[in-house]
Amino acid sequence: MRTIDWVDGAVEIIDQTALPDTTRILRLSTVEELVAAVRRLAVRGAPAIGVAGGLGVALAARQFADDPDGLADAVELIRTARPTAVNLARCVRRVAGRLPDGPEAVLAEALRIRDEEIASAERMGRLGADLIASLCGERPRLLTHCNTGALATVTGGTALAVAFELHRRRALAGMVASETRPLLQGARLTAWELGRAGIPYRVAVDGAGPFLMARGEVDAVILGADRICANGDVVNKVGTYAHALGARAAGIPFVVVAPESTVDLDTPSGDAVEIEDRGAAEVTSLLGAACAPGDADAVNPAFDVTPHSLVTAIVTDQRVVRLDRGEGLGAYRPA
Ligand code: MRU
């Protein structure tokens, strides 16, 4: 099953807000529906929202075929639906570049991005599994954060693709899924995907991660990214930085897995990245029930920045960059 696809003239997604209880397909036929789905995280994860952005431009090309101003506004609305993951703006720009060639060319470009992400996931799984095996030896126990599985891509995943590949090789002892407050992508989505794959896992509250590492219950941390900056700084779901500090204190590898489409050489470092703040309500409530006084204020950065000095390696679909050995992302740009 694909997380997102183009089906009979519209975008279909698995509604991630309904998981793990309900597997519901949503059909998005207008730009407004697609943007709302991205904003409320019905479709989420950097590669998946990149694909959503590209397919959204394909929707816009049809919806605003006779309205150039409406089309320009729609493309801008899609591009800015969420600010932090580089994939969204990048894919929207790429697909919008085909608008002069007509709606069919636009759709073909969006579908190319979808297919590239599917192929990337397979390659990341293999490269990452080889790296983890070389760093950790036989049957490691891995901790992950947020959701980096098929739900965050189209199929396969990024960091979870590595876990799936290790499991296929019978080379994974089990996973700790960090729950990922406030929206519980780890507890709801990663646990759901690991269970379906038959991988043994335990869910842990986010704050337990560094302690589990200190207590010797985790052999490596493996997670994804929403943007990897030119200097190797990693912008990912809030809580990532704490796991990186925990990994450093425990002396275990901290490995980031993301496609080249998430590497942003135009952004020099994490300081330059706009971090989405999703407002107080997500923090002061949990699964729809209040968990703080009604008048509590809250701060809700959806992402944080892990300095490159804490990252052991970055695995993309093309290469493994060993930051711990002084390697950098360099000027490499995929074809
Ligand atoms: O807010 P989300 O759920 O879209 O955040 C997603 C993440 O932070 C993932 O870790 C990241 O996109 C990598 S997924 C392949």
UniProtKB/TrEMBL annotation:
It comes from the Bacteria. InterPro entries: IF-2B-related, IF-M1Pi, IF_2B-like_C, Initiation_fac_2B_a/b/d, M1Pi_N, NagB/RpiA_transferase-like. Its EC number is 5.3.1.23. The record marks C146 as: Transition state stabilizer. The active site is at D226 (proton donor). Substrate binds at R44, G45, A46, R82, Q185, N236, K237. The keyword Chaperone does not apply. It catalyses: 5-(methylsulfanyl)-alpha-D-ribose 1-phosphate = 5-(methylsulfanyl)-D-ribulose 1-phosphate. GO terms for molecular function: S-methyl-5-thioribose-1-phosphate isomerase activity. It is an enzyme of class 5 (isomerase). Pathway: Amino-acid biosynthesis; L-methionine biosynthesis via salvage pathway; L-methionine from S-methyl-5-thio-alpha-D-ribose 1-phosphate: step 1/6. This is Methylthioribose-1-phosphate isomerase. It comes from Planosporangium thailandense. The lineage of its organism: Bacteria, Bacillati, Actinomycetota, Actinomycetes, Micromonosporales. The gene is mtnA.
